[in-house]
Amino acid sequence: MTVTSEAAVQAQPADTRSPESWAPSISGRARTIALVCLLAASFMELMDATVVNVALRTMQADLGATSSALQWVVAGYPLSYAIGLILGARLGDRFGRRRLFVIGLAAFGAASLACGLAADPGQLVAFRIIQGAAAALMVPQVLTNIQVLYSPEERGKAMGMFTSVIGLAAVSGPVLGAVITSGDWFGMSWRPIFLINVPLAVLAIVAARAFIPETRAAHSAPITIGSAALLGFSLAAIMLPITIGPEHDWPGWGFGLIIAGVLGLAAFAQQQLSLQRRGVEPMVPPALFQTRSFATGLATFAALSIPTGGYFLVQSLQVQVSMNWSVLHTGLMWIPFSLAVPISAGLAATILAPRFGKHVLQVGAAIFIVGMVTMYFAEASSNPAVWFAVALFVSGLGFGAIVGSAGLLVLNDVPVALAGAASGVFNTVQALSVAIGAAAIGTVYSSVGASSGFESGYRGALFIMIGLVAVGAVIAQSMPRQQIVAAGA
Description:
This protein is mainly alpha-helical.
C-alpha cells in the first residue's frame, strides 16, 4: 500500500470543485452483470460474518479449539473488517475501484480457502482476520460503484437490489451454516462453509474484470500514515472490547479502551478539519457531514441497526434454550424472515422511499416492533412454530423496509465526488452498530437470564430492542425532505 507522510501532502489542494456530474461509462446488460458481480461480493461478505456461529461446536470438536480460540474465530472477522472499511474506500478512490474490488475478492477467496483447509485453531483465527481485512477492501467499492454507475433516476432500482441482497444475506449465514454443517457435505464437516466462497470469488473476479469499468475519484485524498494509523487505532480500540468483552464479563480495561477509541475518533475528526482548513483533501471530508440527509440519516440508521445486531442473536438463543430446538431447526426458523426481506426491501428502495422518504423508515420501524412483540407472545401459544413463522415474516417486512430505504435516503444527496468516503463511513457505522447491539443486548440477555431466568432475560432484551427501534424512528423525523426520482420515472 502506498502511503505518504502528513507533511508530504501540504501542497496538495483540497477538492473544492462542485459535485461531479454523473456520466455513464457502461449501460444495459454489461452494467447489469457488473451489478450482479458487486452484489455477489456483498452477499459473501455478510454471509461469512455469521456463517460460523452455528458450526462452532463442530469446529471445537474437530480442531480441539479452546473457548478463547472459538471466540476469536467469530470476533476476528468483524474486528478487522470494521477497522479497514474507510481506508478501503479511500484506497479505491485513489488507486481504482475495480482494482481494489478485484484485489479484495482475490484475497477474500484465498483466505476462505485457507480457512477451509486450516489444520489448527491458530491458523483458522489468523485466516479469519485476513478474510475480514480482504472484505474491507472489496465491500466499500460496491456502494461507490452503484453511486458512480447509476444516475439518480436509476439508482433506486440498483439500491433496491443491493438492499434485498443485504437483507437476505443477513440471515442466510445461520441457515446455510446449519444446513452445510448438519449435512456433512463430502464428509468435510464444517469446512465447506468457507470453501463454497472460492468458486464464487473466481467467477466474480472474471466478471469484474470483464464488465466493471475502472473509476477513480477526480481528486482523491492522499492516504497519510498519521490519519490511517489514528483512525485504525481508534476503531480497533472500540471494536476489540465490543467483540470480546461479553465473553470476559466486560473487564475494566475494555471500557478504558473504548474511551480511548472515542477520544481517538474525536482527535481524528479535529485532524480532518485542520487539514481542510489548510487546503488539504482530508481522508474523511468534513464536508460530507454538511449534507444534512447524510448526517441525520446516518444517525437514524445507526439507531435502527443497533437492535438488529441483538435481534438475530437473542432470538436464535432463546428458541434453543426455552424450546430445545436444534441448530438446524433454529437456522431453518429464519426462512420466513429471509423471504419477507427482499420483497419489502425492493419495494422500499424502488417505489416507497422515492415517494414517502423518511416515513418509510418510520413505518418499517413500527412493523419491525409489531413482529418482535408477536414473536414474544408466539412462544406461549398453542402452536409456537406457526406463530414464529408469522412473527418472523412480519419482522422481515419491517427490517426490509428499513434496510431497503436507508442506503438510498442516506446516500442520495451525497455528491459523486464524495461517494467513496460516504460508502466507507456508511459501512463502518453499520458494522459498529451491529457489533454494539450484539454485544450489549446479548449481555443483557445472558446476564439477566443467568440470575433471573432466560425468560426474564429475553423480555429485558426485547424491551431494549423495541425502545431502540422507536428511538430510531423518532430520529428519522429530523431527516429533511428529499427529491428522489423513482426507478423508471
